[in-house]
Design goal:
Layout (H helix, E strand, L loop, with lengths): L5 H8 L6 E4 L2 E2 L10 H12 L7 H4 E4 L4 E4 L8 H18 L6 H19 L4 H16 L3 E4 L22 E5 L3 E12 L6 E4 L14 E6 L5 E5 L24 E12 L3 E4 L5 H37 L6 H26 L2 E4 L2 E3 L2 H26 L2 H4 L3 H4 L5 H8 L7 H15 L6 H5 L4 H11 L2 H11 L19 H16 L4
Parallel strand pairs: 1-10, 5-8
Antiparallel strand pairs: 1-2, 3-4, 6-7, 7-11, 8-9, 9-12, 10-11, 13-14
Helix pairs in contact: 1-2, 4-7, 4-8, 5-6, 5-7, 7-8, 7-9, 7-13, 8-9, 9-15
Bound molecules: iron/sulfur cluster.
């Protein structure tokens, strides 16, 4: 099959027989028609459309050496730094089409994470996970499956490790192992796009010790499986989607997040990639989080473009687009947006080949990218609010515009510059409201792929503070132990690079130094 169309994807998720999906307390059978979920399904669909649209297909189609066919990039394993950069570019482009998170990148990053981690395990002598993963990858690529990635656990009491929790299922865990597979229980929280997916790739959310080995589990499972329950979260203004309008909710695209509960769910053994392998969990978390943090440089920059465009148009509608302070604020929005993108591209082009053919992002720059994204979207939104004016919070509804008794009055009092109508003004205000103040640009930007503190922890792990201090001491004329090498950046090796080096050494030793 190779590359599917958006319609083929919709057809495949229409009928669900086993999984239970709940929205606002009611069970949903068809996610493609449910008014709450349909906009999210359409945003997910845009990733399939990207492989067919003229403007994106060169970025979205890529050759897979695993199945010797073109595949959709969202199921591709990165083969070069240019591949990593193409991901960021594609994400920016798709954001222009949907103005929302399109949800498929978590599964994409989970695939690439498992590719690296199972390769490193193989180099350490544990070959079975890699063999199973490659078979799974081929199926995903051949069928062009829609994957959700599930990492964040419910977590219970944050100060306690998984095995110390009063609720033993606060983190997803193995409850039983049979010769055919494993049974798992627990819950994954805030899982992006899960109700619109065909498969869930589950990863551990934190580094585990030996006492947490039952929680050190990674596997894939069809979303439509007995025992899986998905409870979809609410969002600001979500009830507008149930009104049946065409302006106020911009009912075309949104993302959704869900709580995914595994109630003693069976996972067949060929889909279990980590089973009590706690020794690899810290690297797995590091690899995945850096991949997803790099991606934000693309999708959030794309949303920045939408907001810049909306801000500029609203300024034009009232005739202030040439005012110096407005131009200055729009330039600031551009600077903030392009900085996020530049960081994502840098994290890609400075990517690291941690094992032959395994291209990981640059961990420092990926973390910097995401940290910018925890700050800049709120600043961009602040500027947009400033330019758009109070109407962003006070605009009448589309139903007022459609009421024959008042629509002429609104046409008269909401119009600014000739050539734009009151409806134009309301439409653009609603777009700005939904994108700039929505979950994808505000909350996801802060907490998706790890909250700000998680990136700061990585900064202190990766930055070689002692080296910088010795550099400064030397310049100050103090006694200094600085040793200059060809390496430019004062960065330490990540846990993943250390593991890869160990693996390399053991391979060299095993092959007699060749
Ligand atoms: Fe993709 Fe961005 Fe959404 Fe993450 S937040 S799934 S990178 S669109």
């Amino acid at each position: 099959m190779g590359i599917r169309t958006g319609q083929e994807y919709l057809d495949s998720i229409k009928v669900r027989n086993k999984v239970e999906i709940y929205v606002m307390g009611k069970e949903v059978k068809d996610v493609t028609t449910n008014p709450f979920l349909k906009p999210s399904v359409l945003a997910f669909k845009a990733t399939f459309d990207s492989a067919w649209d003229e403007d994106t297909k060169d970025l979205a189609r890529v050759w897979s050496p695993f199945i010797n066919e073109e595949v959709n990039r969202f199921n591709h394993i990165h083969r070069s730094p240019e591949d990593l950069a193409a991901k960021v570019k594609l994400l920016r482009k798709i954001s222009h089409k949907v103005g929302a998170c399109f949800q498929r990148c978590v599964g994409y990053d989970a695939l690439n994470t498992l590719y690296i981690i199972t390769e490193l395990m193989a180099q350490h002598g544990k070959t079975e996970p890699k063999e199973k993963f490659i078979e799974y990858l081929k199926t995903v690529q051949k069928k062009d499956l829609a994957l959700a990635g599930a990492m964040t656990d419910a977590k219970g009491v944050r100060t306690l490790k998984p095995h110390e929790q009063p609720n033993k299922n606060a983190y997803v865990r193995i409850t039983e192992v049979t010769k055919d597979g494993i049974y798992v229980s627990g819950a994954k929280a805030n899982i992006t796009g899960v109700a619109a997916s065909e498969e869930i790739v589950v990863l551990p959310t934190r580094a585990m010790g030996p006492e947490d080995q039952d929680y050190a589990v990674a596997f894939s499972i069809p979303t439509d499986t007995e025992g899986i329950k998905i409870i979809v979260g609410r969002q600001l203004n979500d009830a507008r989607r149930l009104e049946g309008g065409e302006i106020d909710a911009l009912p075309y695209f949104y993302n959704h997040e869900g709580l995914v509960i595994f109630d003693n769910v069976f996972v067949s053994m060929e889909r279990v990639f980590l089973m009590r392998d706690w020794q690899y969990t810290s690297q797995l978390v590091e690899i995945f989080s850096a991949y997803h943090r790099q991606g934000y440089g693309g999708c959030k920059a794309g949303l920045g473009d939408v907001i810049i465009g909306a801000t500029y148009n609203l300024a034009k509608q009232i005739g202030v687009e040439k005012a110096p302070h407005v131009q200055d604020k729009i330039n600031e929005e551009i600077f903030l947006t392009e900085t996020m993108y530049a960081a994502g591209i840098a994290a890609s082009l400075n990517g690291i080949e941690v094992c032959p053919g395994c291209w990981w992002v640059n961990p420092m720059q990926a973390n910097v990218t995401k940290h910018l994204v925890t700050k800049f979207p709120s600043q961009i939104t602040q500027l947009a609010i400033d330019i758009a004016g109070g109407i962003l919070g006070t605009a009448p509804s589309e139903w007022d515009l459609k009421n024959p008794k008042i629509k002429e009055l609104l046409a008269k009092y909401l119009q600014g510059v000739e050539g734009y109508t009151a409806e134009d003004r309301i439409r653009m205000v609603r777009l700005l409201e939904n994108v700039a103040l929505g979950v994808a640009f505000q909350i996801e930007s802060v907490h998706g792929a790890g909250s700000p503190a998680a990136q700061r922890i990585m900064f202190s792990r990766l930055y070689n503070l002692s080296y910088a201090e010795e550099v400064a001491k030397r310049l100050a004329g103090m006694k200094s132990n600085v040793k200059f090498t060809k390496k430019v950046e004062p960065w330490r090796e990540s846990e993943t690079e250390k593991l890869a080096k160990e693996a390399e050494k053991s391979t060299v030793t095993a092959s007699g130094g060749k």
